[in-house]
Amino acid sequence: MIPAAFEYQRAQTLDEALRLLTQNGEDAKLLAGGHSLLPLMKLRLAAPAVLIDIGRLSELSYVREDGDQVVIGALTRHRDLEISDVLRTHAPVLAHVAGQVGDPQVRHRGTIGGSIAHGDPASDLPAVCLAVGATFTVVGANGERSIAATDFFRGFLETALTPDEVLTEIRMPKLDGAGWSFQKFNRRAQDWAIVGVVAVAGAQPGVALVNMGPVPLRATAVETALAGGASPTDAAAHAADGLDPPADLNASPEYRRHLAQVLVRRALEEARTP
User: Is the pLDDT score of 274 beyond 80?
Assistant: First the structure.
């Protein structure tokens, strides 16, 4: 389909992007790689009056170390995450998951910030951020603030970002030596996950689920069971506790609950393997 008419504006700097957002208010949307927003526009599920292109803001594309954290610019593309030596050393789960997103064309255009700001529950990268306990830096008319990943996703395709804010940075703790696993079940390669799981071992294990509710979410019941000394099998039995997985052409809620238990068990077993 053809999207509704819109005005196109290209920001040359972050300050200019913020000014354009303030001028246009809720009628404006940011455009980075476009792989999240443009399909919605073609289906007329989104109809912004103004598109503000920030895809060329090189100042927001980087991966670097900062003490005991890894810091990632929001416009860093999936392919750059996949091949980053910093991530492969200190946060290999993110590099691995980024390499599983879509196809090469998507990975060369899509950005981590776009994936997170879109807030799609079927997206893989938000689950990584939840599992590792990442925080997001956002900048707006009222200055800069930091939002924990657990507080960021509010509803279906809804986040804590206000209309005049830009997600600029992702910060996550280094996972040096911690085990991890990413399990994803889909019908065909490159499809969205019917169910996905990210598990990170360590003193405070993190488990996050893909496509098990209206938002990207953590498997808190599994984490509580692990903290109480439960085995991977026993902890995985709680994978769907309190969740309301969606029904669609690919799976029923009951099937997703079953998949979640199977994939969480596999992820926990792999993550704890030396």
Answer: no
Measured CA distances, 67 to 93, 236, 266 (Å): 19, 34, 32
Q: Is the pLDDT of residue 164 over 80?
A: yes
User: What is the residue whose two structure tokens read 């980053």?
Assistant: 84
Q: Where are the domains of the chain?
A: 7-53, 61-172, 183-271
Q: Which fold has domain 61-172?
A: 3.30.465
Q: Name the CATH topology of 183-271.
A: Enolase-like; domain 1 (3.30.390)
Whether residue 15 contacts residue 9, with contact meaning beta carbons closer than 8 Å, is answered with: no
Residue 228: how many other CB atoms lie within 10 Å: 9
Which pair of structure tokens corresponds to residue 118?
Answer: 């879109």
* pTM of the entire predicted model: 0.94
Could you list the beta-strand ranges (E) of 45-141: 50-53, 63-66, 69-73, 135-140
Map tokens 């196809």 to a residue.
103
Tokens of 264: 């969480």
Please give the DSSP secondary-structure letter assigned to residue 212: S
